[in-house]
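Shipment paperwork, digital attachment
Item: protein structure file
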Amino acid sequence: MLTVGSIVIRCTDLERQLMFWTAALDYEPRLPLETDFALLRPRGGAGPNVSLDAVPSERVLPPRIHLDLYADDQPAEVERLESLGAQRVHWPKRPDDADYVIMEDPEGNRFCVVDAAPGAAA
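Attachment content:
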């Protein structure tokens, strides 16, 4: 049996990404911190880890993989993530009735915030 243990995000500015992703997901870093790698884990213990790997890499668009983050209150979460440094991404092919908002973190790593409110499609 396999399970997802950690999702690894490459980054340039580890400290900035550490601040963003811990606040965005309400995760905590495993201590002690390394200078080029951080493992973030859910405070409540449930869910996959997110690791930040300070290895420069070329950004490719569209990305080959991205996170779908489920939100009970999508508009509030999108606003909160923007206040942390995320930005919305315009995609002209996004359907008008889409249940997701495309965003990117401060370094341009893309993710979607999906409406998971009771009764929503997610």
